[in-house]
Amino acid sequence: MSEAFSNDPETTAALQRRDAAHHIHPFTDTGALNAEGSRVIVGGDGCWITDSDGNRLLDGMSGLWCVQIGHGRREIADAVHRQMSDLSYYNTFFKTTHKPAIDLAEKLARIAPSHLNHVFFTGSGSESNDTVIRMVRTYWDLKGKPEKKTIISRWNAYHGSTIGGASLGGMRAMHGQGGLPIPGIAFVPQPYWFGEGGELDPDAFGVWAARELAHAIEAHGPEKIAAFIAEPIQGAGGVIIPPETYWPEIKQICDRYDILLVVDEVITGFGRLGKWFGSEVFGLKPDLMPIAKGLSSGYLPIGGVMVSDRVADTFIEEGGEFFHGFTYSGHPACCAAALENLRILEEEGVVERAADIAPYLAERWLALGDHPLVGEARIKGLMGALELVPAKPSRSIRFDNEGEVGTMCRDFSLRNGLVMRAVRDSMIIAPPLVITREEVDELATRARKTLDDTLDKLQRDGRMAQ
Ligand SMILES: *Cc1c(COP(=O)(O)O)cnc(C)c1O
């Protein structure tokens, strides 16, 4: 990395100019970014990334929640190189297959909960959720219940950015662009106690939020409801960890009304919560389980939908042709990257290591809850959040101009050499699963310095009392 850096004479300013001239960034106000200049990342190694000015940053977000094994593992590059030398591309349409797709499907069936024995490959989490919509609706057609078409999701859920994924997601800002959601998607409240729990205690609120699903099913007519989709813990929505009462109640409701349960494990899959899948942590039995991100640790783009025996048998025995698929479904090089990533996760015990480090990370993270800016610190596995508030301990008094303080804090964090993400006015982390105790200490120290810097600035600006 340092070699690549020292061999590259192009300055950061020149790179930023060329970026601004031609590159429209995702989830970005590109005009504002171009005025400021983007951060140029040139290298990655373990839990660290390096920018074009030579700064090393602790990657508290695993890229975008995906780099389970850390950056820069040579073995993945070698596995992809080998695969591309043998067969760089072939499709899996028209009665063909290849060994990487066979091997990966078999391996996923072994790793996933025991009733999930088939996979439909995609190129991303968004494509996985588009696939979910078509599979869910086709399943009920095949079952002779074509009126069962509506999928219920939750406000502030994130399920991707394609038309289907963004429709399933409950992000109002996304719906506001492009006329979303598509018809046949309904929304219920999220189990976000800190933000929306009102006077209820967390457990009572968890039951209330879950029962909103039953009310929505009754309101639409149970004969019309096809599925409920949810992340075990909402990621992009701000690491929303549901109260313990929530999931048991949801499971009962899905069973009672005979609707499919779709558990979006794009973030929680592959060890993020200290077990292979979040479904194991929360005792869920998904009928469909979208995966991506940690499947390849982000080294190459690949996703999929894990399909339960119940749904797979229906498609295979009664389905005929499923008119759906992507040019890159089961791309051999991406499968090779995923296979090598899974080998590393298994052979190096990375999921167990995540479970081992989680209590220490929790101890250090939760200790930040004593900071005057932090209204709540929460964490499960390797996903954590800090809610920034102006008047602790009130949950209802929030900063004016939502998101501004979060963004300020995020910028301080980068200056302090730590990648945290801001969601509204909360700060979130999801570090690589291979993070060490020393790196956890670094993360906690830099996060506290960042909170101090933010508080100091708010006080100097007169927005918080000295
Ligand atoms: C990131 C994400 C997606 C979308 O995945 P992409 O690969 O970005 O399309 C879907 N669901 C969840 C829960 C995610 O976090």
Averaged pLDDT, please?
A: 96
Distance between the termini: 43 Å
CATH top-level class of the largest domain: Alpha Beta
How many β-strand runs?
Answer: 14
**What's the CATH architecture name of the largest domain?**
3-Layer(aba) Sandwich
Name the hetero compounds present.
pyridoxal-5'-phosphate
Which regions have little confidence, pLDDT < 50, spanning 5+ residues?
none
Radius of gyration: 22 Å
CATH superfamily of the largest domain: Type I PLP-dependent aspartate aminotransferase-like (Major domain)
Q: Sheet with the most strands?
A: 4 strands, parallel
CATH topology (level 3) name of the largest domain:
Aspartate Aminotransferase, domain 2
- Strand fraction: 5-15%
Strand order of the largest sheet: 6-5-7-8
| Structural class by helix and strand composition | alpha+beta
Q: In DSSP terms, counting alpha (H) and pi (I) runs of 4 or more, how many helices?
A: 18
Organism: Amorphus orientalis
Family: Belongs to the class-III pyridoxal-phosphate-dependent aminotransferase family.
Cofactor: pyridoxal 5'-phosphate
Protein name: Putrescine aminotransferase
